[in-house]
Amino acid sequence: MTKSPLSLLDAEARHVLDLGRQAPARPFEAGTPEEARRAYEEGFPEFQGEREPVASLVERTIAGPGGPLTLRIYHGQGVPSALAPALLYLHGGGWVIGNLDSHDEICRWFANIAGCVVVSPDYRLAPEHKFPAAIEDCQASLSFMRIHADDLGIDALRIAVAGDSAGGNLATVLCLLCREEKAAPTAQLLFYPNTDASQEAGSYHRFAEGFGLTASSMAWFRDHYIRDLSDIRDWRVSPLKAVSLAGTAPAFVAIAGHDILADEGEAYAKRLAAAEVPIIVRRWPGQIHGFVSMGHHGPAAREAVNAAVAAWCGFDPAFGRQAD
């Protein structure tokens, strides 16, 4: 007898889904973006892992392409005062929801585990600011890190980019845009990235309902982000559609086995490998989309960040610290 996909889930993933069934929330697509943001902001603290202390945390506002852009800057424990490695972290949320607080614990973990400086931008959200506003803000944030490297205490030639879900999408696009630059990102650390806005992969059908992020919610997010259907074919929305991935940054890709984005994550990893981009793929077969933001309910979230840092250390021989 074939096992039900639900029976193959890790215990912590089943627990999270059980919590959702016990107190069902209205689907994002049943309301407005403002309502979705409020619901998400009320709910994410229940899932976040420990907000561990960092050496320092400040917010800074810079001039962005669409107006003032807020950056949250984390210095990890024991980070050197100069020439430290740095990470630009781009939060997930379907380009519509999410903010600096929703992914705060992940940024703290990266800062401390990697011994680095993390910069997280409060990039513009859709539908008020459609594609390519978010990627423009991410480009501006990376440029700021390079120009102000001395002030930040970082090495402008040792900046990596990371992100989850829609943030993973933005990270892949940013790395593709930067691949001809002298100071291109040294690594891309991707958690269940969105790489194909056509949403036709098999995992969209296998896990369409009942595994957290649904196919209908993902379509709602995408449709708020794009300007029109032609944007789906633009590689800056669907990096899997890029003609070539050659020359982009070495990549770590974390894939959740019970996730509508699983197949496009696998497909992107295969394209990177075929383009001879150094790549490490780690799979969590029993996990669901968003598990790296669910540290309150089990160890998988922290394990994934540890794995990403270990990969980053391997890509950058100058690293002196390994993941714990």
Automatic annotation (TrEMBL):
Keywords from UniProt, A to Z, are: Hydrolase
Residues annotated as signal peptide = none
Write out the GO MF terms: hydrolase activity
Q: Which Gene3D superfamilies does the entry mention?
A: alpha/beta hydrolase (3.40.50.1820)
Q: Does the keyword Hydrolase apply?
A: yes
Q: Where is the Alpha/beta hydrolase fold-3 domain?
A: 87-292
Active site residues of this protein: 165
- Entries under PANTHER family matching the protein: AB HYDROLASE SUPERFAMILY PROTEIN C4A8.06C, ALPHA_BETA HYDROLASE FOLD-3 DOMAIN-CONTAINING PROTEIN-RELATED
Family (UniProt): Belongs to the 'GDXG' lipolytic enzyme family.
Protein name, as recorded: Alpha/beta hydrolase
